[in-house]
């Protein structure tokens, strides 16, 4: 039953390779192919090999047709002719099959089928099949004929052509193989129709590659026909059977696709023919592959070859650009082309982020891998260097120096400052990128215009790129490149726009988003089709937070239909094609002038002539509006400005001028001019001058000139000569309203403007408030980053104030400048970096791409500033303790607190406000001040229901006017009103946070009774409990988080302050978690094994005292909710659990794993109670648990619904095989793994071991997981499975002897696991020491050996007493050396033996800890650190009143005081008094720490303006200094005694008499020791036992 007779004779094209026309291309070739093979490669057996994916789609049909045709042909030959045999064999799909094993399988199959030399093999599939089967053909019976039938795009254009065959081995890809040419290659493009999209995109990388190195005309076709080519593959037209087989039935898209594929195939065939044994020419095919292969070597498990090559191509053209061989235009074109087909252009790309996860490609590793290429010479590598699109520098790969490659690959730069010996040219002339504003406007104008316009000097940036693509998607205009891409030829579409095929994606390009919003309203209704009837504008995450509300409001009012798809007021937008109405239109223009320009640009195409009135007070950035109007004029439309802010725009069509030259971007131009100013050279810019329309063009005259530069300007050019280095003058006051973008450049100059004799060198920049809502909050960003250099800067209401500093005093931040993904921040700080001594690191170098993609190249080659590439790991917040750094630059959505009166909303709300640096608003007070009437009176006069209505109105307007940065505490009854409830629910849907504060209702009632306050809000004559019962459900549905408070607020006197402190601490943890500032989760990247302990109690209360012991050595705690039982039986189970969890969180800071294990999975929770289970899990998310365990056996819909709301909670998707029948090598486990991977952030699979062998099977299973980005917990239960618990890496469940029972059979304790690891050689013993003298009485051995012993670690800590530091050298070199403490007299001279000194230790000037670490390459490194300050920091921090800007006093200015000083600064104490007998030492300190706010004291009895909250004594306890009462003015301050003998010093005694809290020297010693211990072992120290034993010994 076959329909082959109906198949028309296909139209085929042939390409010759190695002088034979053996490549055949067309559509629907099956019958042709079968006939051709049988007739021209006559054998007795045809063996087709394919993979199971392809087999299921095509094999049956193909095999039927083959047999049919074969018998027909043999019939026609004559009676006795036997038709040839057709056999087939299917292998599993995927790269894993390209192995020696699979090759043997195929060979065994062929032999079993008695195949002989008289066999032809057909490789039917993608590159894997082609390579593998080709190799089989090459060696079977010493070589048999074979044909290739490629079914992937990659195989069609690349792998099937050329005769390279191979298999992979564990040592690498393609290591074993042969050259074996196929007899025929049938490229039947129809197979692409079933190809998954990602595979199609993958193949496009090679297609684009070929065009890029070989033929610009092909490249142009690819650039301009993205939609068509994608459609031909992904949405093929199937109007008639066998469409495309003949020329008559071929669609234009099909023809295009065929020509693209043929072109690539032809090129590959050409190269193979002319250069078969790969030298020269063939090397060109390697474009993008040198770097791409290195990336692939790291990412092969998660990324496809083409994806890696795509990123490789981008890096290699950036390299060509940095070497000066390729211009930015070409780079931009290639990048855009790759992107438009969906290929990634960097590892950060959104399309592949989900595959890549947290993996990185360290630059060292990439370089290492590239080194292996046989063709490298010394420190040079061979890379194909493009010199234009379609051209290469040489007809082969070019040698490039490693240093250049490293620079391009590095994510950060380290700028080398200029000095007298650097080779900086004295006069530079350069052109800078075209104006973004003009480029964006001219693109819209010319695309909407009629006629052809040649645009010169267009900016090539992300911004203009997305604008171009966006306009292209909307149809109408045509874009072509000329002069190597220097000129863009636009053929306007006269405003005829259509609904685009897909979403218009704008990245983070604000201008494009604003302009296109109005352009999209122009789309006419006639272009609607059934599938495409609406235009969607979208962008990246940041874009989705940028406001566009005012513009949308105006357009909606004018009759356009626009919907917000996610957040109110932001992209993505959905815009109906209705045309723009026109007539009168009102726009609020106080946020962005771009809204105004957006409407102006599209206005001529409205149905009615438009009158645009600007409302809402002051219009900002008028110059940009003027620019738009002037440019519209150049395109033939005259805008009339009526009185005030009213514009009239006539109807019409823009007339494109034949040529338009775009002036330089004035904001970009500020950077080279500023470099001239700061480095004292001369710089001329020829494409911007006094006639410029751009506001920032005034920068030279208005900012640089008054700062001391010589400025000369013509109409079109600007020249700046800077004064000698270090002699810029501050500008006392400058309003930069007309050039807001240039304020960042001005700020960095102000930072070094110190040439003023009288007084301070302060520059105040004002008028730039709008810069708070740019790519980031730029004012805050500049303040933050300048501070890091040691420059004093602060925010003004509408600007910034900067204290100019001497250049020599500046210091680049150790961790580099953070750029907040903002190009201007990056470029400004690179200006500053030109002079800062010892270099400046700028992270995220790639953010400059937004406006000046080749900034770094220009900085080096044109401006002569040198820099190195630097591979900086992502920031570790772990060690970032400075309070200052934590002030967030951009504020999140406002937080709303609801709950019954008296639960602590206000107290907690204020804590939250302090912590997040938000503003606190008490709703009741707000209500009363807004309406000037007390709530009591309002209710009295108008009644409750009127009050509830008013309450709703006010809460709504309050949140609208305070959308971010506020904490709003609502009245208890807010949920009584349905409208208010709906409003709160909507707020949650828009990703707002509403926190329901709950507390035991009886306690609250008592608390309120005791308060006995006037009850402004009577309880409706009901009991308090009844009110609660009515509201409880409402509170729950109106909140997305729930905080369980155990203590009343701090407003009352009878509250124990330590309880409130614990409450505050727990609340801070909750809050930081839900907003994502600190999620308290276990670091997966950590090299150490991590553990969690399962709490198997039925009730927490009696167990809490044991928590500090039970958690020894663990990293998290599992609360087994199913084991809890509410013995009192009061209240619901959920309430009981909430209380249990709250108790647990008060007594430990470890992250919580919330687990409800069902009976079927080995727990106690009934298997049938699905609803109850999910309401518990949903609660766990509301309570902000760090981890929630979800069993994967529940229904898909329920699980996926639940995890939608997971916030920052990590989901552990778990599966337990309690039956003990599942095997690790079974299909079932793979299936479970896949399911768990789909839901979980962490995968947990638990089986049961029958014998020890099952543990090895488990390990094999893990090794077999090729793609693994998520952490996995795999365990075997039972005694036989204990080995699996020893070997598991991440979050192994453990027990502790104190627990009532083990959570699972076979569970071990941390100590047992460590001992086992030691015995099997996985945890070698290390020796630790104390270096110093005299040390015989030291407590350190007790501290550390107690720790080692408790955790079952094999290590030992010993004293090493010596006066001569030389003696420690052999110990340091010993490989068994694990680390050391260092004390007097070696804290300074030890440094010379160490490889690296931490920044803390450098600043304190002393090392007290040596840590042994292995770097990326496995080299052993000795690190010097200081934990003395950490001891102080951690003991004091919990006692400090959070958020108060307080002062401290240090007594003593010797060596020990430095750790104290450093700790105080890190605690955020801004004024530090220092007293010392002699003042000299204080001055020393003050000059070394100029930013610490040090005030010297000559006497302790001096009156202090800010009484210190904390006193640190850093003098010997034996000193007889008197402590006058004056220093204890602060109420309940803190004393830190650094001496530790005797235990109770005079200061401590006196302080405690005054009601102060004392911290003893021995406590400090233990605390710093605990930090040493944790740094050495990477494990949480068993703190309570260390303390107990050490104090006991200390007393003895
Ligand atoms: N020999 C060479 O010169 C050369 C050149 C480049 C790449 N390669 C090799 O090619 C291999 C990669 O080839 P690939 O990208 O084609 O991968 P592939 O063969 O693994 O195919 C990709 C996936 O698509 C499926 N598939 C293939 N055709 C399909 C179709 N028509 N419809 C639906 N699904 C289909 C496959 O089953 C597979 O899952 C690598 O091993 C690489 O080393 C070889
Ligand atoms: Zn390739």
Salient structural properties:
1596 residues, alpha/beta, seven-stranded mixed sheet, 18% strand, binds nicotinamide-adenine-dinucleotide, binds zinc ion, Shikimate_DH-bd_N, transferase
Description:
The protein has 54 helices and 61 strands. The model is unreliable at 1-5 and 874-889 (pLDDT under 50). β57 (1471-1475), α51 and β58 form a beta-alpha-beta unit. The longest helix is centred in the first third of the chain and has 26 residues, at 52-77. An eight-stranded parallel beta sheet has the order 48-47-46-45-44-43-42-49. A seven-stranded mixed beta sheet has the order 1-2-9-6-5-3-4, sandwiched between helices. Strands 51-50-52-54-55-53 form a six-stranded mixed beta sheet. With 1596 residues, the chain is an alpha/beta fold. The chain binds nicotinamide-adenine-dinucleotide (NAD) and zinc ion. Nicotinamide-adenine-dinucleotide is lined by residues 51, 53-54, 57, 93-95, 98, 125-129, 131, 151-152, 154-155, 158-159, 162, 164, 173-174, 191, 194-195, 199, 202, 305. Zn(2+) binds at residues 206, 289, 305.
